[in-house]
Write a structure and sequence with these properties.
Elements: H1 9-32, H2 37-46, H3 59-71, H4 76-102, H5 104-116, H6 118-123, H7 131-150, H8 157-171, H9 179-190, H10 192-195, H11 201-212, H12 215-223, H13 227-233, H14 242-256, H15 258-273, H16 279-300, H17 311-326, H18 330-360, H19 386-392, E1 401-404, H20 407-416, E2 423-425, E3 444-453, H21 457-468, E4 476-485, E5 488-500
Parallel strand pairs: 1-2, 1-3
Antiparallel strand pairs: 3-5, 4-5
Helix pairs in contact: 1-4, 2-3, 2-20, 3-4, 4-5, 4-7, 4-17, 5-17, 7-8, 8-11, 9-16, 14-15, 15-16, 15-17, 16-17
Length: 501
């Protein structure tokens, strides 16, 4: 992909230095931040190979475990490394998209808008979640489409093959990738340039290659009652409200920064207005509009709020937004940059402080003997000390099965314990992919584990014991293991010992 580098030496230096600085920042954060809920769950269930997974297509599950097995190292940085790389390459592609629609200044603004957006910096380029590889596949598919447009429909076949290959990668990552071929088909119907593609083999070859990426997910679902599709369609329920609509808008403003949201909306409008004269802008607008309108409508009219689902649309709105900013004049550009920088600092300084606090407790430990009730970082807690504590209590040896209440606790605990004992979820309806692994009904002597805040220990233990005695009337509540955050006791891992068949 060397021909994707800028031709100008100054622009090349900017891009390389920018990406290197970004890589260093992401690796630092990856080393500091414990695995989150979704990350730990993905690592836990992917230890056993599956063609696809209950929650998502397989690629983002395969990558962290595959790299850990290849290197022999189980560490958050190793798990996250494929997604850091995917995020860096996506920023590179967004830079090049900006270059192709508006030149060097728009390229830089596109990359900066992409990196300044908290969603694309973290969820789309750091965490062990499907968005990183989804965005990588989408961005490079579109980049090659823009190259094809620039070749006046005389593009070599290998560029269409590249489109299909990256589409396959996106479809193997997350279901939102399905909009890309729909948007391209609409472009082919609605524009004179696109209509010429109907009689060329390239688009149909690209579509065929792309569908290969969806094949593992389809095959897995055929064998499991279409469980993934039932799960995701069930998340959009009737019962929308103005409050839910407001939450969706606020969520997207946070994920993009308000400046990114404004620029994206204005950029899509610009691309739509120029549909007759600049096909590349219209294609980007088509790619943006579908996910933004569809998923906002779904959640405006539903009881849930998943503000990250429209993000594949905003991915292509941002280069259009950069073009809109560039067209507004130097004074506006300067004001926009300053406003964006202030908003980014206002968000990122507290977030980085929270990441450090979740590991050390530095914000409250000097002032409180016990963490105050509002200081809840349980979902960002590092359970790495649990294995040693179980061994010291004599609870590790002789235990055949670990149990957790839901997929959330199951993922966190199983990953912390490196999958060395089968993990069984005690509530089958809350098991997610744990229900489909070979040890889903493992039997023998079990430890049922559930983390809680220190003040909730008695209540949590009593609820666990009641639930465990439905499986074993002789279940016994044991003394909890107390783990520290920094130097201060913070989490109680409550324990029930039982026999399961």
């Amino acid at each position: 992909m060397g021909d994707l580098l800028p031709e100008n030496a100054t622009d090349r230096r900017f891009l390389v230095r920018f990406l290197l600085a970004l890589a260093a920042f992401k690796i630092l954060v990856a080393a500091l931040a414990p695995l989150g809920v979704d990350e730990a769950y993905a690592v836990a269930v992917a230890r056993e190979y599956s063609l696809a997974f209950f929650d998502h297509p397989p690629l983002s599950f395969w990558l962290p475990v595959g790299l850990a097995q290849l290197t022999g190292v189980e560490h958050p940085v190793i798990y996250r490394l494929p997604f850091i790389l995917a995020g860096l390459l996506t920023t590179w592609a967004i830079y090049d998209i900006g270059q192709r629609i508006g030149g060097p200044r728009v390229a830089r603004a596109s990359a900066l808008l992409h990196v300044a957006a908290p969603f694309f910096l973290v969820s789309g380029g750091l965490l062990v979640v499907p968005d990183g590889t989804l965005n990588l596949g989408l961005a490079f598919s579109v980049l090659f489409l823009l190259r094809i447009l620039g070749a006046d429909n005389r593009a070599p076949l290998h560029q269409w093959i590249a489109v299909g290959t990256f589409l396959a990668l996106a479809l193997a990552s997350k279901y939102q990738a399905a909009w890309l071929p729909v948007a391209v088909l609409l472009f082919m119907v609605l524009t004179p340039t696109g209509r010429k593609w109907f009689v060329q083999p390239g688009p149909w070859i690209a579509a065929g290659i792309g569908l290969v990426g969806l094949l593992p997910t389809v095959l897995w679902n055929m064998d499991h009652g279409w469980a993934s599709f039932a799960f995701h369609t069930g998340r959009a329920e009737n019962g929308g409200s103005l409050a839910n609509a407001a939450l969706m808008i606020v969520g997207q403003a946070v994920f993009l920064l308000p400046t990114g949201l404004v620029a994206g909306v204005a950029g899509v409008a610009l691309g739509w207005r120029r549909r007759g004269e600049q096909p590349a802008l219209f294609l980007l607008a088509q790619l943006a509009i579908g996910p933004i309108l569809f998923f906002n409508y779904i959640y405006f009219t539903s009881s849930g709020t998943l503000a990250h689902w429209p993000m594949p649309g905003w991915l292509f709105a941002l280069p259009l937004g950069a073009l809109w900013i560039n067209n507004r004049g130097e004074r506006f550009r300067r004001l926009f940059r300053r406003t964006g920088a202030v908003l980014a600092l206002a968000l990122w300084v507290p977030l980085l402080a929270l990441v450090v606090h979740a590991r050390t407790g530095w914000l409250t430990a000097p002032f409180h003997d016990r963490p105050p009730k509002w200081d809840n970082t349980l979902m960002l807690f590092d359970y790495g000390g649990l294995r040693g504590a179980l061994e010291r209590r004599g609870l590790w040896e002789g235990t055949d099965v670990l149990m957790a209440t839901t997929w959330i606790d199951g993922g966190l605990l199983d990953t912390a314990l490196k999958g060395e004992r089968p993990m069984r979820i005690i509530e089958p309806s809350a098991a997610h992919h744990f229900a489909y692994i070979s040890d889903a009904s493992a039997s023998g002597t079990a430890l049922y584990l559930r983390p809680s805040r220190l003040e909730d220990t008695a209540q949590t233990g009593a609820a666990m014991l009641r639930r465990a005695r439905r499986l074993d009337a002789g279940a016994k509540l044991l003394r909890p293991i107390i783990l520290k955050r920094g130097k201060q006791p913070y989490v109680a891992v409550n324990i029930v010992r039982l026999r399961v068949n």
